[in-house]
Design a protein that fits this description.
The protein is an alpha+beta fold. The protein has three domains: about 80 residues, Rossmann fold; about 110 residues, D-amino Acid Aminotransferase, Chain A, domain 1, CATH 3.30.470; about 60 residues, ATP-grasp fold, A domain (Dna Ligase, domain 1), CATH 3.30.1490. It has ten helices and 13 strands. Strands 8, 9, 10, 11, 12 and 13 form a six-stranded antiparallel beta sheet that branches. A four-stranded antiparallel beta sheet has the order 4-7-5-6. A three-stranded parallel beta sheet has the order 2-1-3, covered by helices on one side. Helix 1 crosses helix 10. The two termini are about 25 Å apart. The relative contact order is 0.15. The structure holds adenosine-5'-diphosphate (ADP) and magnesium ion (MG). The site of magnesium ion has 2 residues, from loops.
């Protein structure tokens, strides 16, 4: 595979210091192995263990850091300064995507449907929040991923514990209207939507939580997703607009739900989604013929356009 020589020396950025470090180590290792199998001169680089200034020794970077520090524009900014092409979304889109409230504000301003929400602070009148959003709600840290620190709240008296749990992870916490219905995720490759996947957590969990995501193997992944062809297209077009509105680029994923009336609601954008071989983007890409290795090379190829 001499063709892989065009990439030069590639740093696979993995690990980092966020709450999703363990997930990133798994994703990063899978990407590293895929690139090595494809003949790419790739090396693991954990910015938690080495100074980012050492990145000058590389020709390009494949970012597989999830969460704060790696998915929020910080490492993207370092790479811009060092003039090293990198995969995926740039500084601004990454910073917006990591912030669930800023993302929603942009979607609202673009007339894109996103589940109603309120920011919760010490001074928030919870009765007013319940009057606005109804019950149940889901309490989320604004800058986390992997369902870390989230809880479903069905009764007023459960708010305090849910807010405390979210506050342990983030200074900014939100309540979002609970959407009863079906959950979908829409992956992107080369800036275009892939087939939609339906996620169906087992009946005994309230939502697609950390455990369901990483520690259980009884989540069902529907691909095809069960929507009619026309509805799937509608959701893809909606998500493409949502992806572009926040400035996401290249590859990524949007999580969305469909309520019982059939309306779609955008939840969030992931600019560096999971990349283990059983993650969602690889499943969607596989449906259009990409092996995991081919997907990793295709994502890396996006950095060539940025090279001089
Ligand atoms: N408004 C909502 N109504 C119902 N379930 C939700 C809602 N928001 C999130 N969830 C559930 O919580 C999971 C995680 O929420 P999400 O916003 O995607 O954050 P994360 O960044 O942690 O993936 C979703 O995959 C979904 O199962
Ligand atoms: Mg999500």
């Amino acid at each position: 595979m001499s063709n892989a020589a065009k990439f030069g020396k590639v740093a696979v950025l993995l690990g980092g210091k966020s709450a999703e470090r363990a997930v990133s180590l798994d994703s990063g290792q899978a990407v590293l192995e895929a690139l090595l199998r494809s003949g790419v001169q790739a090396e693991a680089f954990d910015p938690q263990e080495r100074s980012v200034t050492e990145l000058v020794a590389y020709d390009r970077a494949f970012i597989v850091l999830h969460g704060r520090g790696g998915e929020d524009g910080q490492i993207q900014g370092v790479l811009e300064w060092l003039n090293i092409p990198y995969t995926g979304t740039g500084v601004q889109g990454s910073a917006i995507g990591m912030d669930k409230v800023k993302t929603k504000q942009i979607w609202q301003g673009s007339d894109l449907p996103t589940a109603p929400y309120r920011i919760i602070t010490k001074d928030t009148d919870l009765d007013a929040v319940i009057a606005d959003l109804g019950l149940p709600v889901i309490i989320k840290p604004v800058h986390e991923g992997s369902s870390v620190g989230m809880s479903k709240v069905e009764k007023t008296e459960d708010f305090a514990a849910a807010i405390a749990k979210a506050t342990a992870h983030d200074a900014v916490v939100m309540a979002e209207k609970w959407i009863t219905g079906r959950e979908f995720t829409i992956s992107f490759l080369n800036g275009q939507p892939l087939p939609v996947i339906r996620l169906q957590p087992p009946a005994d969990v309230a939502f697609y939580d950390y455990e369901a995501k990483y520690q259980r193997n009884d989540v069902e992944y529907g691909i095809p997703c069960g929507l009619s062809e026309a509805e799937e297209k509608t959701l893809q077009v909606l998500c493409l607009r949502a992806f572009q509105a926040v400035g996401a680029e290249g590859w990524g994923r949007i999580d969305a739900m469909q309520d019982e009336q059939g309306n779609f609601w955008l939840l969030e954008v992931n600019t560096v989604p999971g990349m283990t071989s059983h993650s969602l983007v690889p499943k969607a890409a596989q449906a259009v013929g990409y092996s995991f290795d081919a997907l990793c090379v295709a994502i890396l190829e996006q950095t060539l356009a940025a090279s001089v």
